[in-house]
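Recap from last week: sequence in, structure out.
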Amino acid sequence: MPTKSSRGAADVQACTPEPVAWPGGEAPAGSAIDTALEATKNRVARLARAIETEVIPRLVRHHQDPLETGVTPPTVEEVQAMVHALIDESDDRIVALVQQLRARGLSVGTLFLELLTPAARELGVLWEQDRVDFATVTVSLGRLQRLLRQLSPEFGSEVKHPHHGRRVLLTQPDAEQHMFGLAMVAEFFRREGWDVLGGVAGVGIDATAWVRRDWFDAVGFSIGSEQNLGWLRDTIVQVRRVSRNRSLVVMVGGPIFSLHPQWAADVGADATTDGRGAPLIAETLVNGRVQEQLSGRARLS
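Predicted structure tokens:
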């Protein structure tokens, strides 16, 4: 009868350097890891591409602030310098470039639209061309958003805030990746004195729950593709149905509405515009509905 030690020795098999075959045949052409990496790459690429189309280029070129007449906008070389500073994590170079442009007379709004936006777009191009890795482009976009937040207080101080107490909710579907554009829209609203919920943190906000619980004068949705048109249409119906403000203004934005502005009416929105024009359009619509309510009450009295 074999001992315990002899059984163990008999059961041990020699280790072989031969490769182990994939169960059931050869390994699949694309592994789950490859698929996940490709999906991540596509999401980051969409993020950078969508930033470019969040603001209408025509307005960026022709709708300059009066104080900037004759001021040279950021050059291609300056945008490239910002991109390299973001990649190299050089705070000194970032600060120096921003101070240089501000000293030249550029407003923070123009820096948002003509420096930070094209810088984000260039980061996306580098990512698509495999010239920077995932960690680098992710950290760089994060630094770009941090710069946006740092400039925000100065952006708001460029104008006198009206005390109208307006409140807007800005959100987008979970699947959307163009958060930077939504963040800029939020800053334009804050600059005009609006209380903003959402913006850079607008992904995943349940607009229906919020408008049911709190008062909002306006709600803004941003989508980047036709695939989310159905979601947007259904959400707008629900938001209007449960809103505490029965005169709620609903606005939409994003790349597809820049190309097809007529689709705003199709999804049930009141208007579509770019980030810079959004506060004025929203204020005009809100004031118009207030006047309609006052007129109606006057007729009833």
